[in-house]
Amino acid sequence: MLIVFLLVIGSAVILVNGWLTINTWQRMVTESENDARNLSQSVSRQSEDSFLQVELTLQDLRDRIRLVGLDPERQGYLRRLLAERKSSLPQLHGLFIYDSKGSWLVTSEDMLQQHSNNSDRAYFRYHRQNTDPGVHISEVIRSRSTGDLIIPVSMRLNNSDGSFRGVLLATLRIDYFRQMFGYYNLGDRGLMALMSSNGSILYARPFPDSTINQNISRSPLFSSLLKTSPSGTAIYKAALDGVERVFGYASLKRYPLVVTVGFDRQQLLHAWFADLIVYVVLCLMLLLALAALGYLLLRNIGQNIRDQRELALVRDQLTTMNRTLQTLALVDSLTGLANRRQFDLYLDRSLERSRKLRTPLALLMIDVDSFKRFNDTYGHLAGDDCLRRVGEALQQVPHRSDDLIARYGGEEFAVILSGSNKEGALRFAQSAIEAVAAMQIPHENSDSDVSVVTISVGVHVMQGGLSEESRQAMIGLADKALYQAKASGRNRLEMS
């Protein structure tokens, strides 16, 4: 009867609190979706107004140029007009007029820079090749005059016969959108971005400027959502950082631009948990009542719990012993370095990570020069001590925590340098050669010029993770370089 009673009461508590939990979460997600949708539409209208003001300014300037022309005697008037227009619009970085060859004719600044030519800019090439009279918005560039990040907004200038006369350019400050987006409180990991319709980022908060001009056309926003509706909401992982967010998005009606706003779903979960405190308190009170009623039952099963704890303790001890044995199986007993098995496993993982992250990977194969003669001269005990000291010298060479130094077999060692380019690998190899030579281990029968123990190093670097090299192929290339080093006189390094 006690068990049945506890089950009935416990089920009721779980069902009631479960329903409240699900309902509260659904309501919070719905509110977040509405907030994200409204905010994205509001920001899109603000952005559209900012670009519309610039477009109207360019249209007015183009009309005035048609009336007064671009003769040198009229350029003073145009320069004052451009400066006046720039001062009236806070989003503007500058206004410029270029001739058909891309040279500066008039700017909103006081003086023209000498030898200034922008014929290589994408917007200039676009207008030279297209007769579209409308406004054109290009990707973000860095101003050659001030170094600021700017968004080019341009129009084509035509001669009376319709031929290309030049370009009228307005540049919008990225800092303007940085300030405008900064007014909104989206939480620590909230996202707000202005993008072109082809997926290129013009500005994204709170990400660094390095994300500007990145293309995220493969994200769900561009691959599916915008194809079905110009605005809406969705929950998906952001392409920039992989964080799952509740997104609202809206396309600008007049321009090929998109605004998206996202609230961190994890942050919503934290707020949701905070709202559940009242329900948790009530649930705990009910559970305490159940605990009091079930005391007799718990006392009877207490012995079973103790037995289970003893079994768990034995299981944990066995697990610890198994981990210790596994660690010993991956360590070389003589040098204390990683052994061949650990080297093979780590190299496979490093190759896979390098291909995914498109980062370089360096492999160094190291051989102790004339080691057989060393053993023949000084004995195997001295040879073992020599290998231990060589291993210690390699460990003392500065390297990162995710680099691996291993004894490959016999007198041969191997080093895996994750993320290391050619310069880093050669620097490590040269330091290793110098560190071993600096130990001054006597070797009277060495083939090298010095009568101490030396090493030869073969280096191979897989650049940028673009290669599909296998483990064996990479080892073979490093071994080939090692053979070249030993054939070239030992105590040196070679790179494949």
Short description:
By secondary structure, this protein is α+β, with helices and mostly antiparallel strands.
Walk me through the structure.
It contains 14 helices and 16 strands. Strands 1, 2, 3, 4, 5 and 6 form a 6-stranded antiparallel β-sheet that branches. The protein is of the alpha+beta class and 496 residues long. 50% of the residues lie in helices and 21% in strands. A hairpin with a 6-residue loop joins strand 4 and strand 5 (149-158). The longest helix has 67 residues, at 2-68. Helix 1 (2-68) packs antiparallel against helix 2 and helix 1 (2-68) packs across helix 6 (265-275).
Number of beta strands? 16
Q: Helical element count? A: 14
Give the terminus-to-terminus CA distance: 79 Å
Please tell me how large the radius of gyration is: 35 Å
Q: What composes the largest sheet?
A: 6 strands, antiparallel
Bin the helical content. 40-55%
Kindly report the average pLDDT value: 89
Structural class: alpha+beta
Output the helix-strand order. Answer: HHEEHEEEEHEEHEEEHHHHHEHHEEHEHE
Form type: flat
Q: Proportion of β residues?
A: 15-25%
Low-confidence segments, given as residue ranges, are none
